[in-house]
Structures are given as C-alpha cells and as structure tokens.
C-alpha cells in the first residue's frame, strides 16, 4: 500500500512540474503575439480611421441585419458570415465608427488566436515576424476593420492549417482537432468556395495517409460553415448547382483566365480592378510580390535541411491552391482575394528571413541583418504609403455617396423610397432607400414593380451625366447632382404618402 501511495504521489508531482514548466513557456509565446495583435489594432484605428464610411460590399452585408435601412440585394456568391459577424453591433446601432472599432478589436484578437495555433511548430520569433509581415500589408490593415469576408478566411486558414500540423504531429492533441474544425467552419462561413480551395491539400493528404480523424474534423468544419449557404441555395437559387452557376456568371465566368497582371495593377491601392485597365504601379510597390515566392522557396529549403519539411510544405501548398482561382480563373482582380494566401505564406517567409539573418558567419551576420532590416523598413514604408492613398480615395468616394443622399433628400426622395440605376445600392443605403435593378448581377425587380412603387413612394433613377435613362424614367424630371443625372418620379403619380 505504501509503495502504491508513493507511486501516486510521484506521478502527481511530475504532472505538477510539467504544468509549471509549460506555463512560463506559454507566456513566453503569448506575450509577444499579444503585443503584435495590440499594435495591429492600434494601426488600424490610426491609419484607416473609424470614420471611414461603409463601402459597396459592406453595405450589402451590413444592411442584412440593420433595422433602420432596407436590406440590399444579396447575390449568389455572397455568404451570410459577415452579416452575422457584424450583427452584435449593427443590429442595434447605425454608428459606423462603433462598428469599425468593434471589427478592429475583433480582428486583433483573431490574429492572436490564429498565430497561437502555430505554437510549438515554429519558434516564437518566426511567428511574431510572420504575423507582422501579414498584418503590415496595406490590404490587411485596410480590410481588418471592414465588414468584408477575406480577412476572416485568412484567419480561418491560419487556424485550420496550424492545428492540422499540430494534430498530425501529436495524435493525442484533441484541442487541435477542434481547431481544425473551427478554422474550416470560419472559412466556409465567410466564403464556402474559398474554404474548399484552401483545404484541398489537407483533404488530399488525409485521404492518402488515411488520417481519418483529421479528415472527419476538416469535413465537419466545412459542412458546419457551409450548411446555411447550401440550404439557401435550394430555398432561393434553384439548387446548389444553379447557385454555383450564378456565382460563376456574376464573377465573369470561371475558367482559364490569367489575372496575374490584374493583381499586380491592383497592388497600387485599388479595392477593385474590374475592368483592370489602369497602368502598372511603381515597381517599388510591386517588388515585394516577386520577392515573396523566392523567400517561400528558401523557407522550403531551410525546412528540408532541418528535417521539418511538412511544417512548411503544407502551408505553402494551401497558399498555392488558395491563390489559384484568383490568379488564373477570373478576369479581374481585387487585392483582398489573396489575403488567405498571404497569411499562409507569411510564416514560411518569416522562417526564411530569420535564416538569412542567423546563418552567415560571425563576420557577415551584421551585414545580413542590416540588409534584411532595410528591406523590411522599405517594404513597410511602401505599404503605409499605398494604404494612405487607398484610404483617401475610398473616404472621398463614400463622402460623395453621402452628399448625393443629402441632395436626394432635398428633392423629396426620403424613406421609404426606391432608387434604381447607377450605384443604386450604395447611394440607396446612404439615402435610406431600397435599391432595385431590372437587369445585371443585382437584378431583383421588374419595370412593372418599379412603376407600381412610384404610385405609392418616392422613386428616382440615377445615371451618369448624359447617360441614356431607361424607357420608364425618360419623362421624369431630371436633376443634376454632381456628375449624375437623377430623374425623380413626379409626385402626381403617387396616390398616397
């Protein structure tokens, strides 16, 4: 009995010692990652600023959960994840600054958790530098506090791939299985098709190696995140195949289309490049894009020499499949589309940079460190400059919508009301009106419905100055607002308020 009691005491002491030894190590990892996340949040609030108005896509997502504005048309490619993400604030407050602060804080917490999922796979210094590389991109800072899905797909990709690597290395790590499912669900919740592209290498690997527990966790996460989108496909789009077909048509028809040059043009700060006919930006703006695959390749070599190839090869493979459709399958570009790829590339690239700094002999090590530091400083300066330009342009365009809304109010177009024509969705949101379209990607009404609405409510059609209005609005009085022609249905047509 005494021997048994002693054995129990010894085991208890060992567990206590192991727990005590793990606690400082965890704090040693968590504190630098928490500091990075805090800086990321602060940079968003300072550089992007909470007063930035809502953009077109944000309006579509946010309007689904607001109580004071009509819901904008929700097209086939979109998913409800962003709407649910903003609902805790947007459902009861119309304050855009409050929403921006909420999303900035949430994005910082998410970055911390995503990098923490890689704990033990790479040294802390690599995780901090990788997180800083991703967080300092102008596209990450710009979209972090916005109601858009791509940043959250990137976070889900980091969580899912990091937990996959941990579960693969330690089959007893149950928390990692939950992390795989959670990351996959987050991606599918935001953009189901992107989630599939990101996880293709993971699905293939689990099937080839027969990692059934990992496959189950991954499949369960994808299914949990996409179930609402699939149900909605059958309820409102004629089935899953029809919704996928409609989504492809809205995106210009998915197929072999090289968009690499379009992505390069968009790096200059364009939120959407469609059609992408703008000139190439300054080479200083695009040089990092060409350095990125070189450093990723170096990271692969470093990992192979250190006999930890899988930890680097798997995220690189997921980054490649995540980027594939947006580089070679659509005819336009938006820099936010590649955020999941950038997030997955960041850690192997950081590993390569640390290798460049630490590997040379004692004589050349300071030179290597100085060159890497100068390169990173220059890269950061370029990203901040591009960000400032993007924020300035978007701030002005959203103020234009607000000014147009004010002019419409003075013309008597007040809620409840309906807008059709050019930029009807964003201008309608700022005016407080519903938006309608009889053709195109956002088709949601008919001419007969518009005319019936004009008998009851204020209705206006918007067109660029000198543009040809539709037949139903040609006799309506025209008003010039900035560079727009606004035709308002005559009040005499309305039989009631």
SSE inventory with pairings:
Blueprint: H1 2-48, H2 56-63, H3 81-90, H4 96-116, H5 124-135, H6 138-143, H7 150-169, H8 174-190, H9 192-209, H10 212-236, H11 240-250, H12 260-266, H13 283-305, H14 309-328, H15 339-358, H16 365-410, E1 418-421, H17 424-431, E2 434-436, H18 447-454, E3 459-464, E4 478-481, E5 484-488
Protein name: Integral membrane protein
Transmembrane segments: 101-119, 126-144, 150-167, 214-235, 287-306, 313-334, 369-387
Keywords: Membrane, Transmembrane, Transmembrane helix
Overall geometry comes to globular
Ranges where pLDDT stays below 50 over 5 or more residues in a row are 7-23
Helical content (DSSP H or I, runs of 4+): 55-70%
- The Cα radius of gyration reads 26 Å
Secondary-structure element order, N to C: HHHHHHHHHHHHHHHHEHEHEEE
Strand content: under 5%
How would a crystallographer describe the biggest sheet?
5 strands, mixed
- The termini sit apart by 90 Å
Total of helices: 18
Transmembrane segments: 101-119, 126-144, 150-167, 214-235, 287-306, 313-334, 369-387
Keywords: Membrane, Transmembrane, Transmembrane helix
Organism: Streptomyces coeruleofuscus
Protein name: Integral membrane protein
Describe the structure.
The chain crosses the membrane at residues 101-119, 126-144, 150-167, 214-235, 287-306, 313-334, 369-387. This is Integral membrane protein. Keywords: Membrane, Transmembrane, Transmembrane helix. The chain has 497 residues and is mostly helical. Helices cover 66% and strands 4% of the residues. It is built from 18 helices and 5 strands. The chain has helices at 2-48, 56-63, 81-90, 96-116, 124-135, 138-143, 150-169, 174-190, 192-209, 212-236, 240-250, 260-266, 283-305, 309-328, 339-358, 365-410, 424-431, 447-454; strands spanning 418-421, 434-436, 459-464, 478-481, 484-488. It has a 5-stranded mixed beta sheet. Helix 8 (174-190) runs antiparallel to helix 9. It is globular and about 85 Å long.
């Amino acid at each position: 009995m005494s021997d048994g009691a002693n054995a129990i005491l010894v085991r208890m002491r060992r567990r206590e010692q192991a727990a005590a030894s793990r606690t400082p190590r965890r704090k040693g990892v968590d504190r630098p990652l928490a500091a990075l996340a805090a800086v990321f949040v602060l940079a968003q609030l300072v550089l992007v600023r909470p007063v930035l108005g809502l953009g077109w896509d944000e309006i579509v997502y946010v309007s689904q959960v607001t109580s004071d504005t009509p819901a904008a048309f929700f097209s086939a490619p979109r998913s409800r994840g962003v709407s649910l993400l903003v609902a805790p604030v947007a459902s009861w407050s119309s304050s855009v600054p409050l929403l921006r602060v909420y999303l900035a804080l949430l994005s910082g917490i998410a970055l911390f958790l995503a990098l923490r999922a890689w704990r033990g796979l790479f040294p802390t210094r690599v995780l901090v530098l990788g997180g800083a590389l991703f967080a300092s991109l102008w596209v990450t800072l710009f979209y972090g506090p916005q109601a858009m899905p791509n940043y959250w797909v990137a976070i889900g990709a980091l969580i899912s791939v990091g937990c996959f690597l941990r579960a693969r290395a330690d089959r007893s790590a149950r928390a990692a299985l939950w992390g795989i499912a959670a990351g996959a669900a987050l991606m599918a919740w935001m953009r189901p098709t992107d989630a599939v592209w990101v996880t293709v290498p993971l699905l293939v690997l689990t099937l080839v190696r027969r990692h059934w527990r990992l496959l189950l966790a991954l499949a369960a996460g994808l299914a949990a995140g996409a179930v609402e989108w699939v149900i909605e496909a059958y309820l409102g789009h004629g089935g899953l195949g029809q919704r996928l077909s409609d989504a492809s048509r809205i995106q210009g028809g998915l197929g072999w289309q090289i968009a690499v040059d379009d992505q390069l043009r968009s790096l200059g700060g364009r939120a959407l490049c469609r059609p992408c006919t703008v000139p190439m930006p300054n080479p200083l703006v695009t040089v990092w894009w060409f350095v990125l695959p070189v450093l990723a390749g170096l990271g692969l070599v470093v990992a192979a020499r250190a006999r930890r190839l899988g930890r680097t090869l798997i995220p690189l493979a997921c980054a490649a499949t995540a980027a594939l459709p947006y580089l070679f399958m659509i005819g336009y570009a938006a820099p936010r589309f590649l955020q999941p790829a950038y997030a997955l590339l960041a850690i192997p690239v950081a590993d390569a940079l640390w290798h460049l700094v630490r590997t040379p002999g004692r004589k050349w090590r300071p030179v290597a460190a100085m060159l890497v530091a100068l390169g990173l400083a220059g890269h950061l300066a370029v990203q901040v400059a591009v960000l400032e330009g993007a924020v300035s342009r978007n701030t002005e365009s959203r103020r234009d919508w607000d000014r147009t809304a004010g002019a419409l109010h003075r013309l008597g177009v007040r809620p409840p009301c309906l807008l059709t024509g050019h930029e009807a969705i964003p201008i309608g949101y700022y005016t407080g009106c519903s938006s309608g379209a009889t053709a195109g990607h956002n088709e949601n009404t008919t001419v007969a419905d518009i005319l019936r609405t004009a008998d009851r409510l204020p209705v206006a059609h918007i067109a660029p100055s000198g543009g040809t209005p539709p037949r139903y609005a040609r006799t309506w009085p025209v008003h010039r607002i900035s560079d727009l022609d606004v035709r308002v249905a005559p009040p005499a047509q309305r039989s009631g308020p």
